[in-house]
Amino acid sequence: MANTGYNPFENAQTQFDGVAEKIGLDADMREFLRQPMKEFHFTIPVKMDDGTTKTFKGYRIRHNDARGPGKGGIRFHPEETADTVRALSMWMTWKCAVADIPLGGGKGGVVCDPREMSMGEQERLCRGYARALYNNIGPFCDVPAPDVMTTGQHMLWILDEYETLAGARFPGMITGKPVGMGGSMGRTEATGYGVIYTLKELLKCEKIPVCDTSASFQGFGNVAEYAARMYSQLGGKVAAISCWNQKDKTAYTFKKSGGCDVEELAAIKDKFGSIDTDKARSLGYEISDGDNWLKEDVDILVPCALENQITPAVFGKISKKVKVICEGANGPTTPDCDPLIKDAGIIMLPDFLCNAGGVTCSYFEQVQCNMNYFWDRAEVLEKLEYKMTSAFRAVYDLAKAQNVYMRDAAYMIAIRRVAEAVEMRGWV
Ligand code: NAD
Predict the structure, then answer these.
(1) Cβ–ligand 1 contact at 218 (below 6 Å)
(2) Is 107 one of the catalytic residues?
(3) d(Cα 254, Cα 312) in Å, to the nearest integer?
(4) Residue 362, CA distances (Å) to 55, 87, 172, 223, 304 in order
(5) Other CB atoms within 10 Å distance of the CB of residue 350
(6) Atom 15 of ligand 1 has which residue's CA nearest to it?
(7) Contact 411/395 with Cβ under 8 angstroms?
(8) Which of 71, 95, 107, 200 is catalytic?
(9) What span, in angstroms and rounded, lies between the C-alpha atoms of 250 and 269?
């Protein structure tokens, strides 16, 4: 999606191949796991408000469902590609496995720009997406959820179209729904909070008090906002936040002496995670180039926007003070940058471990929908913290015991779990 010259699917395969080699994975299993099992590419004609019909390109890709139904979000983005969706579906397989939830990997996307579309146009697009995939999504085969530029409202339109075609109610066919309409308490904040649950545990293991640390964030959407909120509630200093500005078609970094006030910035952002520059300026924020978040003199970098942001080309700009990279986004670091990060002694909290809070809470949402009994927020967050902390401990302990990079340790656990399920089913 981010046009940086890197192909996310090649990145995902490179990461997989490296670890498959390390753990001596059987060649037939490697061939099977390095590509998606099913792909759906389709067109969605949508009647636009001006009377014209526009044809959008849609995707749903299931990487692997050996451990359970496919699971993964739907992105609406003008730069969406089949390879981005392939990569994200593959990362979902590893994410569900490392979090140890009984789900596989899937992902969807539509090449569109919801920022330029009316609500009516977006609703018709969602309903078209559900109709195109009616036989290939559902509670027992592949369960979508929100992702970049999609929300609970989009999920509800997809659910409504699916249920209309089915003639029955299937609340577990999609997650990330609004609370009261089959959604789970805590889902909105789950990914961002999950990022910080793993970071908090890492800092505890490394004996670094959170309140002695500072962090710089890329993104101020769903993941980044809640990650930054929890991080500052724990006493960390949010030194800078970078986000996209649709009006100027560029990104900006926001800073304030003494640190960013997350509540204050959340109050002046739009629903796409863009902070209003005029209002920020009047609140005393200094606004600079969008890449500056990377150059901050902080302990922790938290990329929570797009893939391919931390590359060898920008690595030299990262402060020597940085001790941890905490990947809230999917695929923010390119594989050719991992060796540089490792050699610099920076601890990597890899994406598919760090941002697994969203899918874990989506799994809780499905469980609650199936029981038709909903837990309160405290219960959801308590279960979420337990799952995230357990997943982190397994990865951290393996990385320490075998002296391997944390991303490799997470892959080792995930690949072994998935390969075991594939083998037990007798597929390979
Ligand atoms: P979002 O659409 O809510 O927010 C995206 C944010 O990124 C916005 O603040 C936007 O302004 C910012 N952004 C876009 N381009 C930028 C640029 N060039 N420079 C700086 N900022 C930029 O999306 P989200 O749901 O927060 O997802 C962010 C990342 O986290 C994605 O990689 C997504 O796949 C991943 N993720 C999301 C979830 C979830 O539950 N939402 C779960 C797991 C992983």
Answers:
(1) yes
(2) yes
(3) 24
(4) 30, 20, 10, 14, 19
(5) 26
(6) 244
(7) no
(8) 107
(9) 15
